Amino acid sequence: MTDARLSPRLRHRLGALVTGPGWRRILLLRRTAALSLALLALVLASVPSAEGSGVPLVVAAVDLTAGATVVAGDLAVREWPADLVPTGAVRDTAVAQGRVVIGNVRAGEPITDVRLVGAGPTPAAGPDGAAVPVRLADAGVAALLVPGSRVDVVTLGPGADGLVLAADATVLAVLREDPRSRGRLVMVAMPRATATRVAAASLTDQVAVTLRSPD
Fold first, then answer.
1. 80-134: per-residue pLDDT in tens?
2. Is the separation of the CB atoms in 97 and 151 below 8 Å?
3. Which residues of 151-175 are buried (b: 16+ CB within 10 A; e: fewer)?
4. 16 and 69: one domain?
5. Which of helix, strand or coil describes residue 203?
6. CATH number at residue 59
7. The overall pTM is greater than 0.70
């Protein structure tokens, strides 16, 4: 008959480890932990990967400032959780390229349709165009403006005469009135050199617009 000590059963081994010296208990804990980790890795490996289950969205690759014209390098496509896709999210970079951003956009933020206006630099602005935010104190004038309206941006010149800061500029957007601010903000496209002059004047002077008659 074979000696039980030469072929001990599993329960005898476990009992010896538990009741035996401390190093045996440590060995048991280590082996149990290793087995648990191996089983966990096996379970995780069998779970289908979540990659590719998102929705491709266009996001800002860099920080964008209000009035910036979007170029290809400003955009990236990222996978976004389907249940977190914002309404009006842009899914094709071609839709956003050449358009103007309303409001600042942080890098990584999804681009939505309401954050974009215009179809890129207008003929009046030329390829080196820019968009300038102009705050109008007269809400009645702002109510007459729509995207595409052609205006002259004016301010009070010497001797109470009107001084034209930008001629034949194009309205890109009329933003909603903010109760915390005086007047409505209008985004206007014009050549970059002219935009600099208008932006500087609006810091110290009251700026208004006059509507041009259609051609």
1. 998 888 888 999 998 888 887 877 789 999 999 878 876 544 444 555 677 888 8
2. no
3. bbbbbeeeeeeeeebbeebbbbbbb
4. no
5. helix
6. 3.90.1210.10
7. no
